[in-house]
Amino acid sequence: MCGIVGYVGKEDSAPILIDGLRRLEYRGYDSAGLAVHDGERIQVVRAVGKLRELEKAVGAAPLPGSLGIGHTRWATHGRPSEINAHPHVAGKVAVIHNGIIENHMPLRERLEKGGSEIVSDTDTEIVAHLIDEQLRKGGDLLASVRGALAQVEGAYAIAVTSQDEPDRLVVAKSASPLVLGLGEGENFCGSDIPALLPYTKRVIVLEDGQLAVLTRETVEISTLEGAPVEAEVRTIDWSPMMAEKAGYKHFMLKEIFEQPRAIEDTLRGRLDREHGDITGAELGLADEHVPGIERVYLVACGTSHHAAMAGRYYFESLTGLPTSVELASELRARDPVIGPGDLVIAISQSGETLDTLMAAKLAKEKGARVLAIANVMGSAIPRMADGELYTRAGPEIGVASTKCFTAQLAALLMLAVYLGRRRGRLSPERTAELVEAMARLSHQMRDVLQGTRQLVMNLARRHVDARDVLFLGRGLNFPIALEGALKLKEISYVHAEGYASGEMKHGPIALIDSAVPVVVLVPQDECRDKSMGNLQEAKARGGRIIAIATESDDEVHQLSDDVVEIPAAGSELTPFLTVLPLQLYAYYVADFKGTDVDQPRNLAKTVTVE
Ligand code: M6R
User: Fold this and answer.
1) Is 379 in the pocket of ligand 1 (CB under 6 A)?
2) What's the pLDDT tens digit per position in 237-258?
3) Does residue 145 have its Cβ closer than 6 Å to ligand 1?
4) Which phi and psi angles does 361 have, rounded to 5°?
5) Which of 193, 189, 131 is nearest to 157 (CA)?
6) DSSP character at residue 573
7) Is there a contact between 502 and 538 (Cβ–Cβ < 8 Å)?
8) Tell me: the pLDDT tens digits for 28-67?
9) Which of 354, 335, 353, 357 is nearest to 344 (CA)?
């Protein structure tokens, strides 16, 4: 997730672009850059780090010109560095991009064979070279962008400027957001409305498969095939603060609703639906490593540890490898038996958690292969690891992790399916079935978020004064029960406990009375019938049962006070769906209580102390 802006008008473009990028910095902040056309040539300035570094660089080398593009980056391909920062230049064009080009590797090979000098590790530079290639064949900028995009698979929002066309910006979109802003004698584009709001309230939301040519006076939209488009102009009345959160009250709520997109991006280019397999690309593990793996350790803290617990179910059942889950802080408190033959997977949203970093270092010293699953490219844990698998959730601002959790689950499931297939544990048919189920997942998550929001909000309102809440789950949904309890504790300060459903009768059942809401996860899977027994035990003690169940499960409806339904899904996929109402529940309880949802007391987003 990156932020892009573009301007063509009468003013100096650089300050407007930097201001727009500042409003998009929540989308990424590891490097930034501008390309400005001064009427004769394009000048580019890029800098690593937060936007102030770019501001310093532009202060030292001003960029005159009233047409330009700007980018703030959240690395997906290639580490944060000046050479990987956008804009990328090839020949006479400069390009900025938000998204992921899935077929960048074969395109890179073809371009390099044809003599293109590609200097960065990014997928974006490939697009710049494709446009340059088309321009050399004699087309104008619009035709060249069309010709280039016809070769590209994946997600993109791009803005392009060409040295030979000082008065036109060409932009295009597929699966990544792009908004056009309409001014008087000036026009704008941006990844999101906040970038445009100080300058205009009149916007056009570009649709997938559309391009636009922006000049000072005109905005012309067409399809990739060249058909003209009449777009609707909307007037926005958001305040700048609302706009930054895309209209949501808190970043956490926005991030909860971003999960379908985060899953799509994390799976993008890694699911090979044609062959019913996981591609080895960017998994941090290659086919040659597979035979050497005898055992798996999953190491993490907090929410990432809950993802690791779900990961153990995936690894054990899909790969047949003995798998342990470790709290990173505890691993170093022991003398763990780790060595060559062990694959240690360190899972961390930030990639900087000190406990996880130190545990991963210890494992490496003992001779294990370390694979990092992280969301922040170039962070400490992937830097020290032997391999890296990036979730592509985009920056997570809310301290309570939501979208990074489900992205971690997706990463772990992909890895387990990849290994399971190569170890012969999974048949081609079962592998293809799992790949298809993963491809459907984001749609199901969207349905759950939209379909359950109001009901969960009502439940939260009703139970806002509960002093204790229990969450019960079994099998793959046990870690989800723990995660539901952690979310509630973190942001609402309500005492909550997650338990394995079957463990309740060994003690925690004493806590249950009519003042205690009991959230029971009973989706249709191999644990459902046993979990129903536990639900009945809680009901018999007077607990107020909120069930998270598969739709049309009549028995659950009869026995529960309230039921939140999820669609039918294979067992492996249920955690992605059951966790969503739990996140929403925690959010709304906290919001009704009026706590600081995005920055709860005593917590930090990244914990760099042991
Ligand atoms: O960045 P990490 O995933 O390594 O962070 C681990 C924990 O600190 C983190 O998950 C924490 O528990 C969150 N506040 C959970 O919402």
Assistant:
1) no
2) 666 666 678 789 999 999 999 9
3) no
4) -65, -40
5) 189
6) G
7) no
8) 778 999 999 999 999 999 999 889 999 999 999 889 999 9
9) 357
**Distance from the Cα of residue 375 to its chain's centroid:** 8
Question: Is residue 348 lining ligand 1, measured as CB closer than 6 Å?
Answer: yes
H or E element: which one contains 247? Answer: none
- 491: CATH: 3.40.50.10490
Is 408 a pocket residue for ligand 1 (Cβ < 6 Å)?
no
What does DSSP say about strands 271-272 and 277-278: parallel, antiparallel, or unpaired? antiparallel
Q: Are strands 387-390 and 369-374 parallel, antiparallel or unpaired?
A: parallel
Interstrand relation of 42-48 and 31-37 (parallel, antiparallel or unpaired) = antiparallel
* Close Cβ partners of 569 (under 8 Å, ≥ 6 residues apart): 437, 441, 444, 523, 550, 576, 577
* pTM > 0.85: yes or no: no
Whether 480 maps to a domain, the answer reads yes
Residue 610 forms part of a structural domain: no
Whether 490 is covered by a domain: the verdict is: yes
* Phi, then psi, of 194 in degrees rounded to 5: -55, -35
Cα distances from 529 to residues 217, 294, 488, in angstroms, run 66, 34, 27
Q: Which range of residues forms the domain containing residue 338?
A: 280-426
Average pLDDT, the chain: 93
Best mutation site among 327, 353, 375, 401 for ligand 1, i.e. most ligand atoms within 8 A of its Cβ?
Answer: 401
Residues involved in catalysis: 2, 605
